[in-house]
């Protein structure tokens, strides 16, 4: 999937050179290596889309990880394993720099004041977009909400199989890549569900997820307000906090768990979700 940088206005890259608009084959400044159902990858995509930053997406084969192995020369070392980092998301800046870990990627790319431009520069964001409160929400999403998604989408083999159906839409995967990834990936996820629940001391994964959603709706203030439900920080537009929560939930769109999420509570969560989706404007 290509989101071309060519001849497209972007607040983050406002000083693009004339040469960058000459040919549609010009490489984009940022490339995201991802799994489509990864909440951390979706966080990066949603932030970049909201800020109208051009980037390219490259799907990683979840079994072979060949797309990551091809970058072993520039990927940072995983100190625990003594080998190149082999997890998504990875963001390439040009062809020489690889950023890893979603929180670190965004912390390095984002700037709270205008001024960055061009490949490798920080991305300017609106005032108040990425403050300490937003970072606290990001930590909660990364450590709580996103962790709860895995055991919820792998409660049965059929749900795991559904979760891995995204591989069938990846044009760069061969028929055997798709078959192997869906069947073996779904089996591995399903079998790992109990281990993950034990690791994070999760007894009732659905109940824990609903409780987490309650934390979000409480922050939103629910319905009954003039103009409907607002955003987490009560601003006129979404902040990073909204996008962090939204993108985690968006990663499971189309799955049974997502349907239950959208039916949660008094409808304020769904209303908020749709408002954030519209503001992000995925491309």
Automatic annotation (TrEMBL):
Stretches that traverse the bilayer: none
GO CC terms: mitochondrion
Domain GST N-terminal, residue spans: 28-117
InterPro entries, A to Z: Glutathione-S-Trfase_C_sf (IPR036282), Glutathione_S-Trfase (IPR040079), Glutathione_S-Trfase_N (IPR004045), Thioredoxin-like_sf (IPR036249)
PROSITE patterns for the chain: GLUTAREDOXIN_2 (PS51354), GST_NTER (PS50404), PROKAR_LIPOPROTEIN (PS51257)
PANTHER family reported for this sequence: MICROSOMAL PROSTAGLANDIN E SYNTHASE-2, PROSTAGLANDIN E SYNTHASE 2
Official protein name in the record: GST N-terminal domain-containing protein
Species name: Chromera velia CCMP2878
Lineage, broadest ranks: Eukaryota, Sar, Alveolata, Colpodellida, Chromeraceae
